[in-house]
Design brief:
This protein is of the alpha+beta class and about 375 residues long. The chain is built from 11 helices and 10 strands. The chain has a 4-stranded mixed sheet with strand order 1-4-5-8. A 4-stranded antiparallel sheet has the order 2-3-7-6, with no helix packed on it. Strands 9-10 form a two-stranded antiparallel ribbon. The longest helix is centred in the middle third of the chain and has 37 residues. The structure holds flavin-adenine dinucleotide (FAD).
C-alpha cells in the first residue's frame, strides 16, 4: 500500500487531534505520580495507530516505518511521550519477518485489537551492556519447553505488557565460534509462564516504567521460539534499522516541541523593556537548533523511505538516529536556557521533556555505538570491539 503526502498529512492531523485530549497537564501529572499513561495508550490503541505496522490480513493497517515514525513524532511534538508504547512498533519486525504463521495468527490480531499488549523487549543485561552477544540468560530446551534462568536490566513496561520479546543464549558464549550465534529470541506470554519471573521496578530520572527482571527456572513452551534456535541475534539486528528510524522520529517530535516553546516564550517574555527573543544571544541558538532539527528530519525521511522500499538503509538509519537525538538534545538545552529559571519549574513542562529527550541519545542504543557503526561499517575504519 502506498501512502501519499496527503495520507501522511491526514495521519498527522488525526494523531494531533487525538493528542489534544492529552494536554501538558495530563503528562505532567502522569510524570509526577510515576504513573503509566494508560488512558493515552488505550486511546491510541483504539484509534488503530499503534497497529499500523501490523499487516491488514492480521487486523492492522499494513503501513510502513514512514507512517509509524510520523505517529510517534506527533505524539512527542504534542508534548507527550511515545516511550509509553513505542516498543510495540520496535519489536514488530522480529515477529513479522521471523515469526511462524501460527505465532502471527495467534498474536497479531489480538495485539491489533488491543486485547494483548506487546510492550516489553528484554535484551539488556547487567554483565553485557551494549555488548549484546555477552548476554548470559540461558534458555535450555527440555522436551516441549525451555527453562530460562538469568537476569535482565532496564526492561521497560514489563508490568504493562502481556507479551515480552526475550533474548537468551541457547548455547553459551564460550561454546560458539561466532559470538553472534547461539542466541535465540522468544515471544513470552508473561501471564502463562511457570517458575519465578520477578519484575522489580527501577527508580529512574524518566517515567519509563523500567525494571530489573529475574528469571528463575522459568518454563516457556517450545512454541515461543521465534524462527530458528541460535539465530536470534540476526533477527534482532534485522530490526535495528526500523528502531533507529522510529527513535529518530520521536526525537524530531521533541525537537520541534522545544523549538516552538522556546521561540514562543522568547517572543513573549519581556526583560529590559523588550522581548528576550530580540537579543541575538537568545534568538540565534533557537534558530540554530531549529536548523539542526530540520536537517535531521530530512535524514529521517531518507532513511524511512529507503526502509519502506526494502533498500539497504543502515547508514541512513544510524545517521538519522544520531542527528535527530543530538538535535533534540540541543533544542532541549536551548529551550531550558530561554526559559531561564522557569525552565526548572515543573509547570512549564520543559524540564520533563528535557529529561525525556536526553534518554534518546542513550537508549535503545547509545550514540557511541551509532558512531562506531558509521566509523567501522560505513567509513571502514578499524573496529573498537
Ligand atoms: C530508561 C531506559 C529504558 C530502557 N529500556 C530498555 C528496554 O526496554 N529493553 C532493553 O533491553 N534495554 C533497555 N534499556 C537499556 C539501554 O538499551 C542500554 O542502557 C543502552 O543500550 C546502553 O547499555 P548500558 O547502559 O549497559 O551501557 P554500557 O554498555 O555499559 O556503556 C556505558 C558507556 O560506554 C560506552 N561504550 C561502551 N562500549 C563502547 C565502545 N566500544 N566504544 C565507544 N563507547 C563505548 C557506551 O556508549 C556508554 O556511553 C533502557 C535504558 C534506559 C536508561
Amino acid at each position: 500500500m502506498t501512502t501519499t503526502a496527503e495520507d501522511l498529512q491526514s495521519i498527522r492531523e488525526n494523531v494531533r487531534a487525538l493528542c489534544k485530549d492529552f494536554p501538558d497537564t495530563y503528562w505532567r501529572e502522569t510524570d509526577k505520580k510515576g504513573a503509566y499513561p494508560q488512558d493515552f495508550v488505550r486511546a491510541l490503541t483504539e484509534s488503530g495507530y499503534l497497529a499500523v505496522l501490523i499487516p491488514e490480513e492480521y487486523g492492522g493497517s499494513g503501513l510502513g516505518i514512514t507512517e509509524a515514525g510520523v505517529i510517534l513524532e506527533e505524539i512527542n511534538h504534542s508534548g507527550g511521550n511515545s516511550g509509553a508504547c513505542h516498543a510495540q512498533m520496535y519489536t514488530m519486525g522480529t515477529l513479522l519477518r521471523h515469526g511462524s504463521e501460527e505465532q502471527k495468527r495467534r498474536y497479531l490480531p489480538a495485539i491489533a485489537k488491543g486485547e494483548l499488549r506487546l510492550q516489553a523487549f528484554a535484551v539488556t543485561e547487567p554483565n553485557a551492556g551494549s555488548e549484546t552477544t555477552r548476554i548470559e540468560t540461558r534458555a535450555v530446551r527440555k522436551g516441549d519447553h525451555y527453562v530460562v534462568n538469568g537476569q535482565k536490566i532496564f526492561i521497560s513496561r514489563a508490568q504493562q505488557s502481556d507479551l515480552m520479546l526475550l533474548l537468551a543464549r541457547t548455547t553459551p558464549y564460550g561454546d560458539v565460534q561466532d559470538k553472534t550465534q547461539g542466541i535465540s529470541v522468544f515471544i513470552v506470554d508473561m501471564r502463562e509462564v511457570k517458575g519465578k519471573l520477578q519484575i522489580r521496578p527501577l527508580d529512574l530520572m524518566v517515567n519509563h516504567h523500567t525494571n530489573t527482571i529475574f528469571l528463575e527456572d522459568v518454563e516457556i513452551p517450545a512454541s515461543s521460539l521465534i524462527g530458528e534456535e541460535g539465530k536470534g541475534f540476526r533477527y534482532i539486528i534485522d530490526g535495528w534499522n526500523a528502531e533507529r528510524i522510529l527513535v529518530a522520529s520521536e526525537a524530531i517530535g521533541d525537537g520541534h516541541w522545544f523549538v516552538q516553546r522556546a521561540s514562543s516564550y522568547a517572543r513573549e517574555r519581556v526583560v529590559f523593556g523588550r522581548p528576550i527573543g530580540a537579543n541575538q544571544g537568545v534568538q540565534f541558538p533557537i534558530a540554530k537548533a531549529y536548523a539542526h532539527v530540520e536537517a535531521a528530519d530530512l535524514m529521517r525521511f531518507q532513511a524511512a523511505e529507503k526502509f519502506d522500499r526494502n533498500e539497504k538503509c543502515g547508514a541512513e538509519a544510524n545517521l538519522a538516529k544520531l542527528l535527530a537525538s543530538e538535535a533534540a538534545w540541543e533544542a532541549a538545552d536551548v529551550c531550558l536556557s530561554t526559559y531561564g529559571g522557569y525552565g526548572f519549574a515543573c509547570d512549564y513542562d520543559v524540564e520533563r521533556k528535557f529529561r525525556e529527550t536526553r534518554l534518546l541519545t542513550v537508549a535503545p542504543v547509545n550514540n557511541n555505538l551509532i558512531l562506531a557503526f558509521l566509523g567501522q561499517n560505513v567509513l571502514k575504519m578499524p573496529k573498537s570491539y
